[in-house]
Design a protein that fits this description.
The protein is mostly beta strands and about 170 residues long. The protein has no helices and twelve strands. This is Protein tssc1.
Length: about 170
């Protein structure tokens, strides 16, 4: 007896493929609070034969015992006029949701049946620069966001609605 505790652990995975008939997927993000809820950023063809970037929330609905497959069910499509780049669930609050588009970032309250945009910060820039990504700062109780805007990284405080720091040309 070596006194070492040994445990045998086994994992099983179920592989499913889900159809996304609403457009070409660009970004997926799973909720840290609900393992069946995720967001999808995708582009779709408009009636004018152009493309539009959208964001929607989906849930994986577990099938009944007599059903063989789980189902992908749309929860809601967010009503965003701008071209959506990415979206993220808040790391600590299951009702907050961040959407980064080319011209603004916005925070949505997803706690009710219909999500509501509770905060938005339009991009104030010269020369038409656009946002391409962003993230929640989990160290600031969800009150801070960092965004990437072409050649800069900016930090935003949602409590004051102000830019609090900026790194210009971080790749240089």
């Amino acid at each position: 007896d070596t006194g070492v505790l040994s445990a045998q652990v086994s994992y099983s995975f179920v592989l499913n493929t889900f159809s996304h008939p609403w457009g070409e997927l660009w970004h997926l993000h799973w909720s840290p609070h609900d393992s069946r809820l995720f967001s999808a950023c995708y582009n779709t063809i408009t009636e004018e034969q152009g493309t539009s970037m959208k964001c929607a929330l989906y849930t994986l609905h577990k099938g009944e015992e007599n059903e063989e497959e789980n189902k992908l069910e749309p929860v809601t499509v967010l009503d965003i006029e701008a071209e959506v780049k990415v979206s993220y669930f808040h790391p600590g609050d299951p009702t907050k949701f961040l959407v980064i588009s080319d011209s603004k970032f916005s925070v949505w309250d997803t706690g009710d049946a219909t999500p509501v945009e509770t905060y938005k910060k339009p991009l104030q820039s010269k020369g038409g620069s656009k946002m391409s990504n962003g993230k929640w700062n989990p160290l600031e109780s969800g009150a801070a966001i960092a965004t990437i805007q072409e050649s800069s990284v900016k930090g935003w405080d949602l409590r004051t609605s102000k830019e609090v720091w900026s790194i210009e040309q971080p790749e240089a």
